[in-house]
Write a structure and sequence with these properties.
- By secondary structure, the protein is of the alpha/beta class.
- The protein has a domain of 159 residues: Rossmann fold (3-Layer(aba) Sandwich), CATH 3.40.50.
- Helix content is 33%, strand content 22%.
- A 7-stranded mixed β-sheet has the order 1-2-3-5-4-6-7, with helices on both faces.
- Helix 5 packs across helix 6.
- Bound molecules: zinc ion (ZN).
- Zinc ion (ZN) binds next to loops.
Length: 236
C-alpha cells in the first residue's frame, strides 16, 4: 500500500464508540454478542437512531449504526420484516461515484435503485448500505485504481497493483444489523457468490438468490466482464 494512504477514508472527527449517543460500551458488546450463531466472525455495531425515510420507491424505516471503527452503516427496512418469513434483502457497499454521482464506470447505482424498487414492489424487505467504498479500499484509492484502469489495467489488477486484495470488503457487521430487526432468513439479491457464502458464514439462512440485472453500457463492459471472469459473478 502506498505510504500515507488509509484503507478507509475515515474523517478525523469520526466519533469513537465511547463518545456515541448512547455512550455505553456494554450496549455495543450486547449488540455484538447476540448474532454470533454461525461460524463467521461478527463485528460489533451500535444502533444509534431510527426514522421514517420516504423515497421514490415507498417509505422505509432507516436505522443507523456505528461500528467499532466509527463508520456509520445504514439499514433500511420496509414492511413486517421481523415475522420470521424469508425477507428480500440487498447487501450494498457504498459507491459514491456510482450511487450518488451516476458514474457509468460500474453498475452500483443501477443495482442500488433496482434493489430499492424491488423492495418497494413487494412492500417488504431490507437493504444494508455499508460504508466500505470501492470494495473496501476507500474513495481515494478507488480513484487511483480508476486511473490505473484508464492506463489499461482491469479492476482486479488495479487493486492488486495498489497493494490491496481484489475485494477487501468485510460483511461482519451484517449479522448484528439484521439481528437488530429480527431478520434471519434472506432472499438475497446478488450476483456475487462470495456474498452468499459470507452471509451463510455469519449464520444467516439464504433461502434464495434473487438475480440482479446487469446494466451494461459502453463504459462498464470490461468491468462487468472482469467481475464475471475473475471474481465469479453470475451475470445473466
Ligand atoms: Zn460502483
Amino acid at each position: 500500500m502506498p505510504p500515507g494512504i488509509p484503507v478507509h477514508g475515515k474523517p478525523a472527527s469520526a466519533p469513537r464508540r465511547e463518545e456515541t449517543v448512547l455512550g455505553d460500551s456494554s450496549v455495543i458488546e450486547a449488540a455484538a454478542g447476540t448474532a454470533q450463531s454461525g461460524g463467521g466472525k461478527t463485528q460489533e455495531v451500535l444502533p444509534v437512531a431510527s426514522c421514517a425515510l420516504p423515497t421514490a420507491w415507498g417509505t422505509f424505516t432507516s436505522h443507523v449504526f456505528f461500528d467499532a471503527a466509527g463508520l456509520e452503516h445504514v439499514l433500511l427496512t420496509m414492511g413486517a420484516v421481523g415475522d420470521g418469513k424469508p425477507v428480500l434483502a440487498r447487501i450494498h457497499s457504498e459507491c459514491l461515484t456510482g450511487d450518488a454521482l451516476s458514474s457509468l464506470r460500474c453498475d452500483c447505482g443501477a443495482q442500488l435503485r433496482s434493489a430499492l424498487a424491488r423492495i418497494g414492489e413487494e412492500a417488504r424487505g431490507v437493504l444494508l448500505y455499508l460504508r466500505q467504498e470501492g470494495r473496501g479500499i476507500g474513495l481515494c484509492n478507488k480513484i487511483r485504481a480508476y486511473h490505473l484502469q484508464d492506463c489499461g489495467a482491469d479492476t482486479v489488477d488495479a487493486n492488486l497493483r495498489l497493494g490491496f486484495d481484489a475485494d477487501a470488503r468485510d460483511y461482519a457487521m451484517c449479522g448484528p444489523m439484521l439481528h437488530h430487526v429480527r431478520v434471519q432468513r434472506l432472499r438475497l439479491m446478488t450476483n456475487n457468490p462470495a456474498k452468499l457464502a459470507a452471509m451463510r458464514e455469519l449464520g444467516l439462512e439464504v433461502v434464495e438468490r434473487v438475480a440482479m440485472p446487469a446494466v451494461r453500457n459502453p463504459y462498464n463492459e470490461t468491468y462487468l466482464d472482469t467481475k464475471a471472469r475473475r471474481m465469479g459473478h453470475l451475470l445473466e
